[in-house]
Design goal:
Blueprint lengths: L1 H9 L1 H4 L5 H7 L10 E2 L5 E2 L7 E2 L17 E8 L2 E7 L6 E7 L11 E5 L4 E5 L2 E4 H12 L6
Antiparallel strand pairs: 1-2, 3-6, 4-5, 4-7, 5-6, 7-8, 8-9
C-alpha cells in the first residue's frame, strides 16, 4: 500500500527507478530473509521480522487506547532515517508499523510528509493542515507529476 501511494505522490517513473528494485522484489516475495518463529517458555510464539524493509511492529495499545484511527487505516509517507519510508496504521488502530521504501534520491522532499486516510466512504489525503477527498487529490497529483510543458 505504501509503495503504491508513493507512486501516486511522486509519479510512477520515480518509483520505477532501479534504486527501488530491492523493495519491489521484497514485495514480490523474493529476497526475503525468513527467520523461524521462536516458541517462548509460556507457549507464545515470537516472530522476528526481516527488518531491512519492515520494522517497529507496534501492536500494543497506549493506556487502553488504540495507537491510531479505529475506523479507517492510514499511511503516512515521510523521511525515516534518511530514507523514504512510511508509517502504516491498520484498521482498528492497534497495529502500526514502519516500512522502508528506498532512497530519497530524485524524491521531492517538499511533498513530505503526506498522509492518506482511508475511510468507509472515501479516501482522504492530508498534508500539513489540509485534507481533501481522493478525487481532488488525484487531480492535484496529476498536475504536480505532469511532464514540464504539459498542463
Amino acid at each position: 500500500m505504501a509503495f503504491n501511494m508513493a507512486a501516486a505522490v511522486f509519479g510512477a517513473q520515480i518509483m520505477l527507478d532501479t534504486a527501488f528494485d530491492p523493495v519491489r522484489e521484497y514485495i514480490r516475495g523474493n529476497n526475503v530473509i525468513e527467520i523461524p518463529p521462536e516458541v517462548l517458555s509460556d507457549g507464545e510464539i515470537a516472530v522476528t521480522l526481516d527488518e531491512r524493509y519492515v520494522d517497529n511492529w507496534l501492536n500494543r495499545e497506549r493506556g487502553g487506547q488504540p495507537r491510531g484511527p479505529t475506523t479507517e487505516h492510514c499511511i503516512e509517507l515521510r523521511k525515516i532515517r534518511g530514507k523514504l519510508g512510511a508509517i502504516v496504521t491498520l484498521i482498528g488502530g492497534c497495529e502500526q508499523f514502519v516500512v522502508t521504501l528506498g532512497p530519497l534520491d530524485n524524491i521531492a522532499e517538499e511533498k513530505l510528509p503526506v498522509t492518506l486516510w482511508c475511510r468507509e466512504d472515501d479516501d482522504y489525503w492530508g498534508r500539513g493542515n489540509w485534507w481533501m477527498p481522493n478525487e481532488e487529490m488525484k487531480r492535484q497529483l496529476e498536475r504536480l507529476n505532469a511532464p514540464k510543458g504539459r498542463s
